[in-house]
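Throughout this chapter, every protein is written as a compact record of paired, labelled lines. The reader may check this reading against the record printed directly beneath this paragraph:
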Amino acid sequence: MADLQEASVTLPSDPASVSAARKYVSTVLAEWGLPGDAEVADTVRLIVSELATNAVQHTLGQSPTFTVDIELDRDEQLRVGVTDSHPRYPKRLPAAVQQDNGRGMVIIRWLTMECGGRLSVTPTPEGGKTVWIALPWTAPVRGETPSRAPSPR
């Protein structure tokens, strides 16, 4: 098995693309061995939904598309990033702010930390940004058998 598996999809910045991004990630993760009913699969789907929603809603028409990148590094770490071409980084809202929306990054950060992962934002060469989550990968990889303890003699 390769040290790094990668998948990517670029979608229009349209509300309908949020569910398409979520389905794409679910399909890729299933192909890589993560059961669709695993708790972490639900978490990743929710995080992708929030990141894609942010890319659609908060780029103010300045990003006609967004890209979802998925990387599985040496079967140890899963990274998912959503890239848009808007230069503004996500902002953390103060706890006292009362709004009906704007809590996506709080949700993403909390879910990522609950899974033992981390969140980061990196600039793109074109002036946009990628919001990344990195999570430990715990699923057995397709085509490989899980290691077993030696049998007693």
About this structure: The first helix runs from residue 16 to 31. The chain has a mean pLDDT of 84.
